[in-house]
């Protein structure tokens, strides 16, 4: 029976850190943004659970994306609002049922991660690049202020979510890139004094830290599985 994954010290650092940063932000701004705070905390809980391969990440993900869609709508970030409301929200349900099919033996919540082959990685990169170009050109036609940044961040998220639903460790590459882009965007909005921007800067900063760690942890899990499979084959000979 596989050992159940428990939250480690770094997980608790992220969870406690996101709460503490939101408290500091509330004190510094002399206001309490309940929607932004709940969205940011739920988002970090979601990604921490995702790094640990827990299917329960989708519950907190649903809370995060619905609230974040509302925040983006209020901030007139139409692309991000549509991405979260029309794509991420239904994908939480699809991801949950897909991960249920890949639960570890003897586990009720921990998924078995997998790795793409070289051909799969090449095709994913080509498709992702093509989607970014097409999306950016469309946004440019509609007068988007930052068509290439918006197009890149949106399409990276679309690809990353598909890979996440399929439980591929390669999901963390587009997540890292998109998190960096969204963090830069919210920092710029924070400087302009946009409502909800404080908690969002905090959330995306923690997202980026966690997604870097996600790649490291999922690669370790995949390498361990491959080593165990190889050892089993040798023992069977």
* Oligomeric state: single chain
Protein structure class: mainly alpha
Residues in helix, % = over 70%
The backbone outline, from C-alpha atoms, is: globular
Order of helices and strands: HHHHHHHH
- Count all strands and give the number: 0
Strand content: under 5%
Count of helical segments? 8
Overall pLDDT metric? 86
Question: Can I get a quick summary?
Answer:
The protein is mainly α and 237 residues long. 77% of the residues lie in helices and 0% in strands.
Give me some keywords for this one:
237 residues, mainly alpha
Any chance you could write out the topology, listing elements then pairs?
Elements: H1 9-29, H2 34-51, H3 57-74, H4 78-100, H5 118-141, H6 147-165, H7 172-191, H8 197-236
Description:
The mean pLDDT is 86. It contains eight helices and no strands. It is mainly alpha-helical and 237 residues long. It has a domain of 150 residues.
């Amino acid at each position: 029976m596989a050992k159940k994954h428990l939250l480690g010290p770094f997980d608790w650092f992220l969870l406690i850190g996101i709460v503490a940063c939101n408290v500091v932000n509330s004190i510094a701004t002399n206001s309490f943004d309940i929607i932004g705070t709940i969205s940011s905390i739920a988002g970090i809980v979601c990604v921490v659970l995702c790094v640990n391969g827990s299917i329960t990440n989708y519950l907190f993900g649903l809370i995060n994306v619905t609230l974040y869609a509302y925040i983006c709508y209020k901030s007139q970030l139409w692309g991000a609002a549509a991405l979260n409301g029309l794509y991420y929200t239904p994908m939480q349900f699809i991801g949950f049922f897909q991960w249920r099919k890949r639960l570890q033996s003897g586990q009720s919540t921990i998924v078995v991660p997998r790795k793409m082959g070289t051909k799969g990685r090449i095709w994913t990169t080509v498709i992702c690049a093509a989607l970014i170009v097409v999306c950016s050109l469309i946004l440019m036609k509609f007068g988007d202020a930052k068509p290439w940044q918006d197009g890149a961040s949106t399409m990276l998220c679309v690809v990353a979510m598909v890979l996440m639903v399929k439980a591929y460790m390669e999901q963390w590459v587009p997540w890292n890139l998109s998190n960096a882009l969204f963090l830069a965007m919210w920092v710029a909005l924070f400087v302009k004094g946009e409502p909800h921007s404080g908690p969002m800067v905090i959330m995306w900063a923690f997202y980026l830290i966690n997604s870097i760690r996600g790649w490291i942890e999922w690669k370790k899990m995949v390498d361990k599985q491959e080593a165990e499979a190889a050892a089993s084959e040798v023992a069977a000979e």
